[in-house]
Design brief:
CATH class of the largest domain: Alpha Beta
Helix content: 40-55%
Structural class: alpha/beta
Strand order of the largest sheet: 7-6-8-9-10-14-15
Distance between the termini: 88 Å
Largest sheet: 7 strands, mixed
Number of helices: 16
Length: 420
């Protein structure tokens, strides 16, 4: 071949490669997902960091459908209006088809009804437990776009009733946050406590941002309860409990998982919380949960003791697996439909880490399905996007919290059945 013909052939080959963007350039792309989480509060930041941990592991496995994942994070401040504005920005401006969040049913609900469902975006929450979502799904109003890795308020309410019964309480007053989650908790608690013979002497709503809760606390105290149940978040919980203690209220308390916070413990004072017991959903005693704990300690140099951490990890990982299963350029509805392919009890079991995600990609590419085994165990969603879970009773100590009692999924289900 002459030099001139050789140069023309080489030029033709080069132009041919340029004309095929899939050659050598397939990895040079980014896909955005959204996250609306309360990073401005101390217990919210670790939830967001844990979601990013899952994203980092997926990117180490080559990303999703050949592209690296960028999690665009917006702070909700646990405020419904701020949360809706943040979600709209992620959907309308960033063009995300998968949204992680939010924390608090009172924030997740308006995002679901006014942003993700109208826009056809899949929403996966780590930390929203209201049974109102179940009802909405049963009515066909979520369009199959809603999932959550946190069990419903029914679990926490039932376990709280068990704690009250086991402690021998005969009467209890309830202070609850005046939002979707708190109202749901108050309704369920009234029924569950009655089922175990505990009288709810008063059920008082607590609103955000008040300078004092003396009036509400005085109302609850006037009913002369033997104990106090708290379905509040740390900010208003701290203020309400300080008022309660200062007015001579009992230190016998039962707390929802929302108060599993160093901020709450430190601002109230551990000396006033020695008789307080909390409830929470729990990771199962399984190899996958143990593996997550070990990986979390290696990454963050601390135990994953905060609320919603394991749930946040699983929400992010399952969402990204579903994106992989749905294929490049999939819509929110297509991603949601693919969740079944990655949480299939008959699929190939995969671990919740970089290696597991890489294995899942090969299986899905071959037309198979996978059974995700994650930080909260073998996650399985029902038709409404709900999961069930084991539970734990906990108390505060100087380093954070400690487990008092563990209830397996079978024990939780059996106790809930006994209440009915």
């Amino acid at each position: 071949m002459s030099l001139t013909k050789y140069l023309w052939a080489a030029l033709g080959l080069a132009l041919g490669l340029i004309a095929q963007p899939s050659v050598g350039l397939a990895q040079d792309c980014t896909t955005k997902i959204g996250a609306v989480l309360p990073t401005s509060v101390d217990w919210g930041r670790p939830i967001a960091e844990t979601a990013q941990f899952a994203v980092d592991q997926v990117n180490a496995a080559g990303g999703v459908n050949g592209c690296q994942i960028e999690m665009v994070l917006r702070d909700t401040q646990v405020d419904p209006k701020v949360g809706v504005d943040a979600a709209k920005a992620l959907v309308d401006l960033e063009g995300v088809d998968l949204l992680l969040g939010a924390v608090s049913s009172g924030v997740s609900m308006p995002i679901l009804t006014s942003v993700t469902v109208p826009s056809g975006v899949m929403q996966m929450s780590c930390c929203s437990s209201s049974t109102a979502f179940t009802k909405l799904a049963e009515e066909g109003k979520t369009n199959g776009l809603w999932f959550r890795t946190f069990a419903t308020t029914g679990v926490q309410s039932a376990v709280a009733a068990k704690v009250a019964r086991d402690q021998g309480f005969k009467s209890i007053a309830v202070l609850y946050k005046n939002d979707d989650w708190g109202q749901d908790m108050a309704r369920l608690i009234a029924a569950d406590f009655a089922a175990v013979g505990v009288e709810v002497t008063a059920s008082v709503a607590i609103n955000d941002g008040q300078p004092s809760y003396r009036g509400e606390v005085t109302e609850a105290l006037a009913s002369q309860p033997e104990a106090l149940y708290l379905a509040l978040y740390p900010a208003e919980g701290t203020a309400a409990v300080r008022e309660w203690i200062s007015l001579g209220g009992t230190q016998k308390m039962i707390m929802a998982n929302s108060l599993k916070s160093d901020e709450f413990r430190d601002n109230v004072g551990l000396q006033y919380l020695g008789s307080a017991l909390g409830t929470d959903t729990a990771s199962p005693r399984s190899e996958s949960a143990d593996a997550f704990r070990a990986a979390y300690i290696e990454r963050f140099n601390s135990e994953p003791n905060g609320p919603g951490l394991a749930n946040s990890y699983d929400a992010a990982m399952i969402g990204l697996l579903a994106m992989q299963a749905a294929g490049e350029g999939a819509s929110g509805a297509e991603i949601a439909a693919a969740v079944a392919k990655v949480t299939d009890p008959n699929g190939t079991p995969i671990t919740a880490d970089t290696e597991g995600f890489a294995q899942a990609k090969e299986i899905l590419a071959g037309g198979g399905t996978v059974a995700y085994q994650g930080a909260t165990g073998d996650v399985r969603f029902d038709a409404n996007g709900d999961v069930s879970a084991p539970a734990v009773v906990w108390s505060f100590n100087e380093s954070g919290t400690q487990e008092v009692e563990y209830l397996s999924l079978a024990e939780v289900d059996a106790f809930i059945a006994s209440l009915k």
